[in-house]
Amino acid sequence: MKSALFRRVPADPPHLKVLHEGQAFKVALKRRPTAKRITLRVSNATGEVVLSIPERTDVGLAQKFADSHSQWIATRLARVPERVVFEPGAVVPVRGVLHRIVHWSSIRGVTQVAKGGAGEPIIAVAGEAAHVARRVRDFLEVEAKKDFAAAVKKHTAQLGVSAKRITVRDTKSRWGSCSANGALNFSWRLIMAPPFVLDYLAAHEVAHLRELNHSHRFWKITHQLCPRTDEAEAWLKAYGSALHRIG
Asked: What PANTHER family would the database entry show (predicted)?
């Protein structure tokens, strides 16, 4: 007989299943060594339900905790905005202005913003219908990098610093970042926000080229570069999570 010391400990399941009034919800289980108690959260950005538990908490206890909060989970998920898919007919913002996606031709061509028959803003997409979603996302990423490049150039010139490179990605935890070697990274989703919000993020990360912290000096620089800093922060707090529900 094997010693108890060498018995295999079952791995935690990646998800727990919680039922509420006929609905089944998937709850991601995260064991965190630094956690002192069980916590449950629902991401407004992604709609993901996450249960975090301390290192020594039994999975059975975690399941009971999740089950006891089934109504809370259902209520919170009901408040999460519906996801908008990049498909013909969908309406998505570009630089803060709503545009309808129109698949105007099956012949390969460029994706661009244009005016529809009634003069309304549209994103005109060409090529095979199966590739509409990818072409819209690619277009928005390109536009985002273009706008960020222009904003960074403006702010670095004003501050007398230089950025090593600029990249755009689909970041979840932060809208932008600045590395110690001067590389700036931004979320491409900010192309959907009003231009002053994107400009603020550019100013924020450029300010980090001078102050790689969030000290009083850093915020003073940021406000100098972007007078609408407070307004942009308020916009992101109110509407930022909705950007992650698009595409």
From this structure: UNCHARACTERIZED PROTEIN YGJP, UTP PYROPHOSPHATASE
